[in-house]
Write a structure and sequence with these properties.
single chain; 8 strands; eight-stranded mixed beta sheet; alpha+beta; 202 residues; 5 helices
Length: 202
């Protein structure tokens, strides 16, 4: 059993009793922020390449990873970024397995330390297919932080194909799925959301 077993929102609700809401635009008031010329150049060259290759791995390496590295730079390397690491929290509940990306508000880049603030799931094309897995990882992050004595007000989740970005927020046994879906052409807005949310959890 692992995070991948949670193939639907219903599977997570059945296992953990979470409530799901999806009617609100969660981050409409957050302003965009300028992106660096380096990221702009990277995305201009690599986005079309990733979409033409059209695999999850290409989208992850060529689009998603550069965006998250830029986020870390914008936050003056005060956060840590992990890719493809084991995040086993509770095997008895199926909260085990590897996560595509984990962002922690600890600056320790050697070992994952609490508090985990954001989980990012990369998908090839179908964002909806990632809801259950991402929510399970967010629940695991909440448990991980509680055990470490470093709870945060909420956990941020992202499901992205690289070209499309969907945000989720887990708080008080409720998962709010952002009504909006952002395109990579709105990268300044995507980074604005990420920067403000990570700062609010520090």
């Amino acid at each position: 059993m692992s995070y991948r077993q949670f193939t639907t929102i219903e599977a997570v609700q059945e296992s953990f009793g979470v409530r799901i809401t999806s009617a609100a635009s969660l981050f409409a008031d957050i302003p965009p922020i300028p992106i660096s010329s380096r990221l702009q150049d990277l995305l201009q060259e690599q986005t079309s390449l990733a979409l033409n290759i059209n695999t999850e791995k290409a989208r992850s390496e060529l689009i998603i990873a550069p965006v998250l590295v830029e986020l870390r730079r914008l936050l003056n390397h005060r956060i840590s970024l992990f890719s493809g690491i084991d995040f086993t929290v509770d095997s008895s509940k199926g909260l085990t397995g590897f996560c595509d990306y984990i962002l922690s508000n600890s600056s320790d880049q050697i070992f994952l330390q609490a508090p985990v603030a954001c989980l990012v799931e990369a998908k090839n094309e179908n964002i909806r297919a990632g809801y259950g897995q991402c929510v399970a990882e967010m629940i695991a992050a909440h448990i991980f932080n509680e055990r470490a004595g470093q709870p945060v007000p909420y956990i941020l989740g992202i499901i992205t194909t690289g070209s499309n970005w969907k945000f989720l927020r887990y708080q008080n046994q409720t998962v709010a799925i952002d009504f909006e879906e952002y395109l990579i052409s709105q990268i300044d807005k995507i980074l604005g959301i990420l920067v403000q949310m990570m700062r609010s959890l520090s």
